[in-house]
Amino acid sequence: MNLTDYVKQVSEEDFGRPFLHEVFWNNRLRSTGGRFFPKDGHLDFNRKLLDQFGLETFRKIVRHELCHYHLYFEKKGYKHGDREFKELLRTVDGLRYAPSLPSNKENIHHYHCQVCGQVYTRKRRIDLKKYRCGKCRGQLILDKN
Asked: 91-102: per-residue pLDDT in tens?
């Protein structure tokens, strides 16, 4: 079963209403489970969440996006803060927030000062010949993780 057929099935079973638009995988999504586009009615989903958390959690994410979808076309409050959205989401047992994917810890660099021991955590590498400790001006050392 492809993704669009799955979303149509979830819409019929959990909402009792048809889903009439298209659905796509969006590999660029990072912190969100899916997106609803009111302009043309299509939905995007994050495949990584399906792979990481399984079909049960993914179905709850689909329900969340279908709440946006159905409320928008009924001309009701379809945004996260709207009462109608929160009520429908609770009724169909959808997820309010997508679960967090494990972050890529490889890109975190830890440094410490040789003199005072001050610890620095950075996403980008520091040029150790150019930068010193901000506390005591001591030399920084890259910690081996």
From this structure: 999 999 998 887
Cβ 45 vs Cβ 25: under 8 Å: yes
Q: What is the pTM for the complete model shown?
A: 0.72
Task: Show which residues are catalytic.
Answer: 65
Q: pLDDT tens digit string along 2-25? A: 999 999 999 999 999 999 999 999
**Contact in structure between 26 and 33 (CB atoms under 8 Å):** no
Angstrom distance (rounded) from CA 15 to CA 19: 10
